[in-house]
Automatic annotation (TrEMBL):
Residues 8-343 form the Enoyl reductase (ER) domain. It comes from Desulfofarcimen acetoxidans (strain ATCC 49208 / DSM 771 / KCTC 5769 / VKM B-1644 / 5575). Keywords: Metal-binding, Oxidoreductase, Zinc. GO terms for molecular function: oxidoreductase activity; zinc ion binding. Its cofactor is Zn(2+). This is Alcohol dehydrogenase GroES domain protein. Pfam families: ADH_N (PF08240), ADH_zinc_N (PF00107). Belongs to the zinc-containing alcohol dehydrogenase family.
Length: 346
């Protein structure tokens, strides 16, 4: 089969590798679409904590079941599925609480195991038995289904933050994850969503969507703007969807008393020190949460939201490429002109 094999930093090769064969409990998926994101770009440019090389990367996978090992009962041949990429052990203390993405022994497809930048991908035994395969109906395209995983990560964040009815939500960054978080906040009943973005091109795209305010902090005083919009009260929730460490201090200053702050994006590496007034957490009784990845349950919830169109993502896919173009896809992610880029195998 054809695959994009990452062999080292900046060394990615389109090559032929043997198509995997299913052993007991395993499932082989013919990839329909695999989404690309900044994590793939980072893996290619710098490596990643969980990445084991050489590796077929790609973790936003949707496709069709074409082969099954003995004992598989969760799916059948021909099922269209989305794959939750984190494979939990199923028995550690976190797994037993249903927190599969916090599993002490989690293995991630596209990092520890081969992923979806290939014509076929093998889903290991423990993934299949822990429910990483989510069936998707005919009416949901593979392209939309490939956005399940980033939506699931956003659901993980917003469940912790309890984003809900009447909330005023601020999102830093109008890239794919910023837009997804904004759409999700609207779907969960947020009263207003304010997007803050320095890239004019992305700001212009965001302005055409269903959000209430889009602000460029290089042109206006964003804290002042938020205070005006909220009648001097501040926002209920702040979610940074960008790696800029400066948004931590700005975000805390924008929150109302008892506001909630979510560390959704990892901050850029080696940023040195940042100026944050942590006393704001004390005086305003702020709550601070972190989120990393998603469980198979978050993926099931995400599929449900996509199928019922509570969150619509068709308008986010601005570029479909072939597997051979994966390096140019990574460059497109880096220059931030496209919204969501997916690799199409059909
Ligand atoms: Zn991703
Ligand atoms: Zn576990």
């Amino acid at each position: 089969m054809k695959a994009a094999l990452l062999e080292g930093i900046n060394k990615l090769r389109i090559t032929n590798v043997p198509t995997p064969k299913c052993k007991q409990g395993e499932v082989l998926i013919k990839v329909g679409v695999c989404g690309m994101c900044r994590t793939d770009m980072k893996a290619y440019m710098y490596g990643q904590r969980d990445l084991r090389l050489p590796r077929i990367i790609g973790h936003e996978i949707a496709g069709t079941v074409v082969e099954m090992g003995e004992g598989v009962t969760q799916v059948k041949l021909g099922d269209r599925v989305q794959v939750a990429p984190g494979l939990p052990c199923g028995s550690c203390s976190y797994c037993l609480q249903g927190l599969h993405h916090m599993c002490d022994y989690v293995q991630i497809m596209g990092f520890h195991y081969d992923g979806g930048f290939a014509e076929y991908v093998l889903v290991p035994n423990n993934g299949v038995s822990c429910g990483v395969l989510n069936k998707i109906p005919e009416e949901l395209s593979f392209q939309e289904a490939a956005i399940t995983e980033p939506l699931a990560c956003s659901i993980n964040m917003q469940e912790s933050l309890q984003v809900g009815l009447g909330d005023i939500v601020i999102i830093f960054g109008a890239g794919p994850l910023g837009i997804l978080n904004a759409k999700l906040a609207v779907a969960r009943g947020a009263n207003k969503v304010i997007l803050i973005e320095i890239n004019e091109n992305r700001l212009a795209i965001a302005k055409n969507r269903e959000f209430h305010y889009c602000v460029n902090p290089l042109q206006t005083n964003s804290i002042k703007e938020v205070m005006e919009v909220t009648g001097g009260r501040g926002a209920d929730v702040v979610i940074p969807c960008c790696p800029d460490p400066d948004v931590v201090g700005t975000g805390l200053a924008m929150l109302s008393k008892r506001g909630r702050f979510g560390f959704f994006s990892g901050l850029m590496m080696n940023f040195g020190s940042i100026k944050v007034d942590f006393n704001l957490i004390h005086y305003k009784e702020l709550r601070v949460y972190g989120a990393y990845g998603c469980s198979s349950l978050h993926n099931r919830t995400a599929v449900e939201m996509l199928v019922t169109e509570k969150v619509k993502v068709k308008d986010m896919i601005t570029r479909c490429i072939q597997l051979e173009e994966v390096i140019s896809g990574i460059k497109m992610i880096a220059d931030m002109k496209e919204m969501k880029i997916v690799i199409n195998f059909e």
